[in-house]
Fold Amine dehydrogenase.
Amino acid sequence: MKFLDRFFERSSRHVASTTSRRNFLSKLGSLMVVGTAMPVLLPIDRTAKALAAESPSAGDPGDPNSCDYWRYCSVDGFLCSCCGGSVTSCPPGTEVSQVTWIGTCRNPADGLDYIISYNDCCGKHSCGQCACTRNDSEEPMYRPFNNNDINWCLGAKANVYNCTVAVIRGVATG
Ligand code: ABN
């Protein structure tokens, strides 16, 4: 019986100490501190912001069929939006290259810099429409890692180049 008394006393004390108002407030305080530190400590997924910029709206100004469209700041090739595809999708019958050229373009709507990948669409002869050569931050061919005059279809199943898409991959920070 003494054992049971002690057991129930201890459990009741434990429940009382862990459910007190002070304990609740201290836990809430800890959570708040951790919550404010989280964005600084953890890598943040900014895909939502990037996807918001994907939707054609006031947040994505300009004409995707024009070389002047903000996402094409570092493009070199035929725009898929003029070739039966769109700014983000390849024309039917072509496949997207997995190896690609990456640029950083400023969206005039929100002033943010976005990481854009310029994937080539492969498997059909050159589209020939809307040829664009903007090349922000591009460097000469003797620095191949910083040059975008490259047929990325050479890394795909079908090596024939058709056109280029411009896909937002994220928001550039720092
Ligand atoms: N990345 C566009 C491209 C394709 C073929 C040749 C030059 C540039």
The beta strands are 76-78, 95-96, 101-106, 113-118, 120-122, 131-133, 161-164, 167-171. The chain has three helices and eight strands.
